[in-house]
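Moderator note: this is an archived Q&A kept for reference. The question asked for a predicted structure of one protein chain; the sequence and the answer are reproduced below.
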Amino acid sequence: MDLASDQVTSICTHCDRAIPSFNLDLHVAHCSRKLEKCKLCGDMVPKKHSDEHFLSTHAPVSEPIRFFPSLIAFSTFTRMEFSIIYNYIN
């Protein structure tokens, strides 16, 4: 959402985003009811998808053993770390 430079904004206490002041009450009600901040990465995630976010982004994977036999000692990469390493090497 682009904000006009002369528009008055306030910071949402839940997600720390700049919100137009005229819309702040409605935003905070929706934001605090529907979203939560991931404790690991800080992303705002829908509450109903928080488990899915954790499993797809932060849960350890054992795939590096298959792709990187020399890294067996580091077999507890998160999916995000594994993706970064895999894309870097390939």
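Archived answer notes: Residues 59-89 form one domain.
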